[in-house]
Amino acid sequence: MAAQDPALETGGTAGDMAGGGRAAAALLRLKREFEAERERWLLWLPVVFGAGIGVYFSLLVEPPLWLGVAGLGALAAAGLLAWRRPGLWLTLIALGALAAGFAAAQARTHFVAAPVLEKTHGPARVTGQVLSVEPRAAGGRVLLHRLEVAGLDPAGTPARARVRLTMREPGGFVPGDRIRVRAVLRPPPEPAAPGAFDFARRAYFERLGAVGYAVGHAERLDRGGQAQGTAEAWRLWWAGLRDAVARQVLAALPDARGALAAALMTGERGAIPEPVIQAMRDSGLAHLLAISGLHMGLVAGLLFFALRALMALAPALALRQPIKKWAAIAAACGAFAYLCLVGAPVPTQRAFLMVSLVLLAVVLDRSALSLRLVAWAAFAVLLIAPESLLSASFQMSFAAVTGLVAGYEALGARGRAAVAERGAAGRLALYLGGVALTSVIAIAATAPFAVYHFNRMAWYGLAANLVAVPLTGFWIMPWALLAFVLLPFGLEALALVPMGWGLGAVIAVAETIASLPGAVLPVRAMPTAGLLLMVAGGLWLCLWRRPWRLAGLALVLAGLAGAALVRPPDLLASGDGKLLAVRGADGEVWLSSSRRARFTAETWLRRAGRAEASAWPRDAAAAGGALRCDALGCIYRAKDQVVALALDGRALAEDCRSATVLISLEPLRRRACPGPRVLIDRFDLWREGSHALWLSPAGVRVESVAGSRGRRPWVRWRPEWGD
Known about the structure:
This protein is α+β, with helices and mostly antiparallel strands.
């Protein structure tokens, strides 16, 4: 009797068996690759920790407070039981890191909770202590806490409020002053469109419960009031020092160069003229204004080498004492002082943590593993402030440094050998090549986040950085460090003047590059899913070493494809009912007003990838005849839909009969207007915020700000009728 085919005995085919064998072989290869990367596993823990934070912030409802801690505890217990099974144990560790990130975000949300203003209040008398002063060309802004607001119950008074002053006050205010001002206060603004930047969420974690503007002169009640507790006294002391340094710098350089110098030395960017800031953005040099790895590394490095060189001048000291370690400790202390002086923003925290670990390695005679430094720095920042994961500064800062470290790690010893074998001219050429490579890597690593958050790309950033980065490293920052040394003696001008020459050159480079045709490319808003795919692909490419890392390129390309296919909304309506927008078939945007709700209009245009808008037609047609308006409203016909934009209640009767979609700036009940398939009235806009609509022959998709944000602690909830 002939032998039976094994495939037939199991009810399968030879092809099935072959396919299963190939799948098993592929899984075995992946397992071997994964095991060969054992030393890189640790790098993924902060990534999974951050993913847990991301899961928390992606929810539309606030989870029970116990959920994250309970999940973490259950996984820890399971890990103790499964430690003899490596595969299961690693899986439980990853899930535990995910749960830990979720729990950290929950805890942070709970502990920073503070009252938020429910609606516009004032003009009213506002009394508070100045926490910080942000100088501006006219007036400036003050951040106040320990507030007393006339007409508000103390239990509902915000913990902090930011107030824009009407003019520069005589003598100016300094942190610690208690002031009184008559002001209008408003709740932190909601996003201008579904998916746009959520300032209210950021304000919640800063305990900022109100923003507003003064309607009269501010009055100082007490100079340098008492602080409540050591932590507050510490913050006020550094804030006062920051303000004093900024004032001295601006006095020595009273122009845009001085404003840039103050930004580099104190982190205060409010005094920089808007045209200069815009030129820096358009030329790809805006990163020079954010105190990050470049600045922190230069400060610590200059201190380290200068102090070591000074101690080496004393042979007895150099031969008998560990001056290298002393210099490293002193440089770390100087870096910490710089961190406190600039207000400890997220990029600076990351840079300080990495520099500190490098200097600690010098003290301990250990060699530092760079990507591990990045991983631990990311973990520390996220543990302290989980909400920073959502900020552009965190994302761009860590994307740049991860890409740079991974890129130069790939060059390895070959790059160091090439430098050692060349003379001074060759080393200079290699340095300039390194600056170019650094710029290319940093631009590539941060481009997805720049598109996602700012909807723009600076095409000539590489050329600008080739000039500005060496100038900053070799000229500007050394003079800044010397200015810090000379400030207590009143001699800072000796360093600030030559520093200003370098800053003037940077401004000239920025303005020249920004003025080139096509310097900035507006880009449509990227979907979050596309960004996540690119982040996953970039991390896969950077954190692994073996050839399988190249699979990350596929994820990056998938994210790019998703971003390219996204379609901006066809119609937009603002939450306050002041602004409407229509997007034509060719992408042109038509705004109902060029004067009202300017910030909202700028946000809509930027997210649509447009530099400017067209004027709304008055008693005429536009958008190829698709948009027709009169004094009562407009009719927009596109993709088999008839959209009525009712500006006046007298148009509602006809619009209710003929339109498939009706947006009314007047209150309107559904039962009074049953005709349209989609009805959005003034109450919908008030309750749910700005609305975005996508038209198609099959129907209409509607998204609102409230729908995209859900019911979270930082979201002001407005009830339905009858609630």
